[in-house]
UniProtKB/TrEMBL annotation:
Keyword terms of this UniProt record: Signal, Transport
Matches recorded under Gene3D superfamilies: Periplasmic binding protein-like II
Compartment list: Cell envelope
Coiled coil: none
GO CC, alphabetical: cell envelope
Role, per record: Part of a binding-protein-dependent transport system for a sugar.
Natural source organism: Amycolatopsis marina
Protein name: Probable sugar-binding periplasmic protein
Alphabetized InterPro entries for the sequence: Bact_solute-bd_prot1, SBP
Family membership: Belongs to the bacterial solute-binding protein 1 family.
One family name in Pfam for this protein: SBP_bac_8
Length: 457
């Protein structure tokens, strides 16, 4: 499964890589000196003629089994355009993509796991405006849920389309629940704290043997952006500025998280974390029964099927703040995006492949079944060919429940996410004793970056 969250100081594959500042800086300058192309005019380029033999080059970060799934889905375009070949180059990250655009040799289609970079891609022109194509082909974007539409556009400019989505729910070990006498998963944060205490086991020396819930941020998918929907916490105010210090939701989030950290003890948690496996390995703490409850995306179901087939678990929506019962059933969402880079050689044909990967129901179902991600249109979500079991169904319910929240699309990539997760590390360690003052400093840092770019340059 792929994962599109980029973490700041921890492990990961796809969604968990530490490319943060370097990738953002590269993206922000991607179009400096870039060559133009036939589709950079603001006018939709025509579809390829039936007798025009051409090859579309696609960059993506997919690899191994996932690469084969995505390549097979791309080949479906030949049913409509047998004269178009697709050359899929996997293991290409956003740095490589930015360099190709800057050098005037971009692929025809770009697939990125990092929605955080979209604002920069749009603002500097690295990704072409798809509005003329959507208008010409009379595309109804309402088939895409609102939260997904939001994270694939920037300031009203649509320069990408979604290609599957991720929804972050709550996993729990049913055998450990039964052993602890717990019959229902937590729906509120107070229940989460109570369950965590009942499920936690300590070694004779006081160290943690099993964590009912691991609150350390950022670690695995314990990240600010994953927690935020449970508290209704938003990133920017109506003026587009960071205003965390004035947000009761962010304060409640961090105070609750700190109460969990204090229950275990920060040093014990650090020691416990050091003994856990990588997020995408078979030694993941949940796989090994070392963690009883956790946040994670729908793609984790496939990892568990492959790496821990005997583990008994269930999935539900994440627990929510006691003050926000209305948020239950909601979740954080993000996903893969597909776009036409600046200077793409065959933009008209590129758009046909973008449409194929983002709007064709059969293709989306094929991709969702192969990658175990959520299809990003309503028709694909409702298609009977979509493979669903009791572990996957809750994610589909959350996706269609109208309570999804996504990260804001900004021109500074994921700098705001990094700033808040960095603060969370200091806060849980006791290095930020004044919550409001600490959040004011984070606001100042983010707002400076929003005004001047990452680093305040």
């Amino acid at each position: 499964m792929r994962s599109t969250i980029r973490t700041t100081s921890i492990t990961g594959r796809h969604r968990g890589r530490a490319l943060v500042c370097a990738a953002t800086a590269t993206v922000l300058t991607a179009c400096s000196g870039a060559a133009g192309g036939p589709g950079d005019t603001g006018v939709a380029a025509p579809a390829p003629a039936a007798d025009a033999e051409l090859t579309l080059t696609v960059y993506s970060k997919f690899s191994a089994r996932e690469y084969d799934v995505v390549t097979g889905a791309m080949e479906g375009l030949r049913e409509k355009y047998p004269n178009i070949r697709v050359e899929h180059e996997g293991n290409q990250d956003d740095d490589k993509l930015a360099a190709s655009i800057r050098g005037g040799n971009p692929p025809d289609v770009a697939i990125s796991f990092f929605t955080e970079n979209l604002g920069a891609w749009c603002e500097n022109g690295s990704f072409q405006d798809l509005g003329p194509y959507i208008e010409r082909d009379q595309i109804d974007l309402n088939v895409i849920p609102e939260a997904v539409r939001n994270y694939t556009e920037f300031r009203g400019r649509r320069c990408a389309m979604p290609m599957l989505a991720d929804v972050y729910g709550f996993y729990y070990n049913t055998e450990q629940f039964a052993d602890a006498g717990i019959t229902v998963p937590p729906k509120t944060t107070s229940e989460l704290l109570s369950h965590a205490k009942k499920l936690t086991k300590f070694n004779p020396d006081g160290s943690i043997a099993v964590a009912g819930f691991l609150p350390s941020m950022p670690f695995y998918n314990n990240q600010a952006q994953i927690w935020a929907p449970s508290f209704g916490a938003t990133w920017l105010d109506e003026q587009g500025r960071s205003n965390l210090a004035a947000s009761p939701e962010w304060k409640e989030l961090f105070r609750f998280q700190k109460s969990l950290v204090d229950y275990y003890g920060h040093e014990k948690l650090e020691q416990f974390k050091a003994g856990l496996g990588d997020e995408f390995s078979a030694d993941h703490g949940f796989h090994r029964g070392k963690i009883a409850m956790m946040f994670d995306g729908e793609y984790r179901t496939a990892f568990l099927d492959e790496q821990a087939p005997d583990l008994k678990y269930a999935t539900v929506p994440p627990p929510v703040a006691d003050s926000r019962p209305d948020r239950y059933g909601g979740a954080f969402t993000t996903g893969t995006i597909v776009a036409i880079p600046k200077g793409a050689p065959n933009p008209g044909a590129s758009w046909e492949l973008v449409k194929h990967l983002s709007l064709d129901t059969e293709t989306l179902v094929e991709l969702a079944n192969g990658l175990k991600n959520v299809p990003s249109t309503v028709p694909a979500l409702e298609d009977p060919r979509l493979e669903v079991d009791e572990h996957f169904q809750p994610f589909l319910d959350m996706f269609s429940g109208g309570k999804l929240m996504a990260n804001p699309t900004t021109s500074i990539g994921d700098a705001h996410l990094k700033a808040v997760n960095d603060f969370a590390e200091r806060w849980q360690a006791g290095a930020e004793p004044d919550l409001e003052a600490g959040l004011r400093a984070v606001d100042a840092q983010i707002n400076d970056e929003l005004e001047h770019g990452p680093g305040g340059n």
